[in-house]
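Sample intake sheet
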Amino acid sequence: MKNLYITFLFTAFVSVAYAQNENDIEKAIVIGELSKPEVRAQIIRVENDIFRFYNEHNGDSKLDIECNDVVMIGTQISTRVCEPVFWAEARAQKTQEFLQEFRGTAELDTLSAYVADDYARMNAVYAGLTQKYPSFNEALLILEDLKARLKELGD
């Protein structure tokens, strides 16, 4: 994998989003030299910045993306789960319907079709932000490279 330098466009990205001081010190990180824990930490950092920017610019709180640590059934290990608010609300609604009807199994596999319009709107907002803010697009590409590096390290 190529060594990609993250000259923390966070300086550029965050300054576009938050109008910070232009004299911020840039920090260069070589993705190819990061350890697995460092890659994970950078993924969280980049995701947090991307989602914060996206949530502030999407114009609809249902499209906001929220991240939580969730303990999966049968384990004690928490996992970071990031999902749009509309998805969480739809899942809660379907679960509530299941509990009221006692059908035997919650049909969460049909949830994708139920939220298809919201996903289309979310993708349109992402596309608009990547065109309007080039640094947002760069942040998405860096996140992709970080995830590729984590996969390369065996996770």
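Comment: The chain has six helices and four strands. The chain has a mean pLDDT of 80.
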